[in-house]
């Protein structure tokens, strides 16, 4: 069965600092992997996705993620966080018609 | 492109009444739509998957007679919460995709917050 684990419930970083959000998955085949961001009271916005090919994926808003098959991980990174990045981040795995979401990581950005 | 809207964005109703939530794909034809439920500070829980013109497929534990889903057209799906009770209060989010291959991910609506008094 497919599953996603986001080990960090809440992360606080200073504005301008780098960010890494962790995501580990369990999937029987080559996974499709996604990162979404959710602002308070809003729906989810796709940041980036990985289907195949280059394991370093670039997304919107300056985010990137790296697929590491050996570690079953798909961590999200950003070199310099902006205050507007404060939100909830969800990692998801699976096919387009059968996606499973992690529990989410809430990002707080300190001035 | 790939914009999904939901209406209403929030609704308050009395216990025992029914509430209908609409999900529309504005600039693409959505062959498949999904309905999720999200409790405060928790992840999304898939409730059901609906394909245009056919009955929805509900996840285990979701009452299909309570959460009626209709996907009558390629741009519209509706979720009706029947005889709503306070425990149905939640944030409901829909998403849509086109499995013909043009769209390779789910695109989400902004969500509907339901409060049942």
How would you characterize this protein structure?
Chain A has no helices and 12 strands. In chain A, a hairpin with a 2-residue loop joins strand 10 (87-95) and strand 11 (98-101). In chain A, strands 2, 5, 6, 10, 11 and 12 form a 6-stranded mixed sheet that branches. Chain A has a 4-stranded antiparallel sheet with strand order 3-9-8-7, with no helix packed on it. In chain A, 0% of the residues lie in helices and 54% in strands. Chain B is 0% helix and 51% strand. Chain B is built from no helices and 11 strands. Chain B has strands spanning 4-7, 10-13, 19-25, 32-38, 44-51, 57-58, 67-73, 76-81, 90-97, 107-108, 112-116. In chain B, strands 2, 4, 5, 6, 9, 10 and 11 form a 7-stranded mixed sheet that branches. Chain B starts with a strand and ends with a strand. Classes of the chains: A mainly beta (111), B mainly beta (117). Chains A and B meet through strand 6 and strand 11 of A and strand 5, strand 9 and strand 10 of B.
Low-confidence stretches of chain B: none
The major β-sheet of chain B equals: 7 strands, mixed
Question: What is the CA-atom radius of gyration of chain A, in angstroms?
Answer: 13 Å
Helix/strand/pairing class of chain A, anyone?
mainly beta
Distance between the termini of chain A: 41 Å
Amount of helix of chain B: under 10%
Share in helix of chain A: under 10%
Count of DSSP-assigned helices of chain B: 0
Number of helices of chain A: 0
Give the chain pair forming the largest contact, with residue counts. A-B, 20 and 24 residues
Question: What is the overall pLDDT average of chain A?
Answer: 92
pLDDT < 50 runs, ≥5 residues of chain A: none
Content of β-strand of chain B? over 45%
Q: Sketch the topology of chain A as an H/E string, one letter per element.
A: EEEEEEEEEEEE
Order of helices and strands of chain B: EEEEEEEEEEE
Number of strands of chain B: 11
What proportion strand of chain A? over 45%
Kindly, what is the distance between the CA atoms of the first and last residues of chain B, rounded to a whole number of angstroms?
37 Å
Shape of chain A: globular
């Amino acid at each position: 069965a497919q599953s996603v684990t986001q080990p960090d419930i809440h992360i606080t970083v200073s504005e301008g600092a780098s960010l890494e959000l962790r995501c580990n998955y369990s999937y029987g085949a080559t996974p499709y992997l996604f990162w979404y961001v959710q602002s308070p009271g809003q729906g989810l916005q796709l940041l980036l996705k990985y289907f195949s090919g280059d394991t370093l994926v670039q997304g919107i808003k300056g985010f990137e993620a790296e697929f590491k098959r050996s570690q079953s991980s798909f961590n999200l990174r950003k070199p310099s966080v902006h205050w507007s990045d404060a939100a909830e981040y969800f990692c998801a795995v699976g096919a387009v018609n059968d996606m499973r979401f992690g529990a989410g990581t809430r990002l707080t950005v300190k001035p | 492109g790939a914009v999904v809207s939901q209406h209403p964005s929030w609704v308050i109703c009395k216990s025992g009444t029914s509430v209908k939530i609409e999900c529309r794909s504005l600039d693409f034809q959505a062959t498949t739509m999904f309905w999720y439920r999200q409790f405060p500070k928790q992840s999304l829980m898939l409730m059901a998957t609906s394909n245009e013109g056919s009955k929805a497929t509900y996840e285990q534990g979701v009452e299909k007679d309570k959460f009626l889903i209709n996907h009558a057209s390629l741009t519209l799906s509706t979720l009706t919460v029947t005889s709503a009770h306070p425990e149905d209060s939640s944030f409901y989010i829909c998403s849509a995709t086109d499995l013909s291959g043009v769209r390779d991910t789910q695109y989400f609506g902004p969500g509907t917050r339901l409060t049942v008094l």
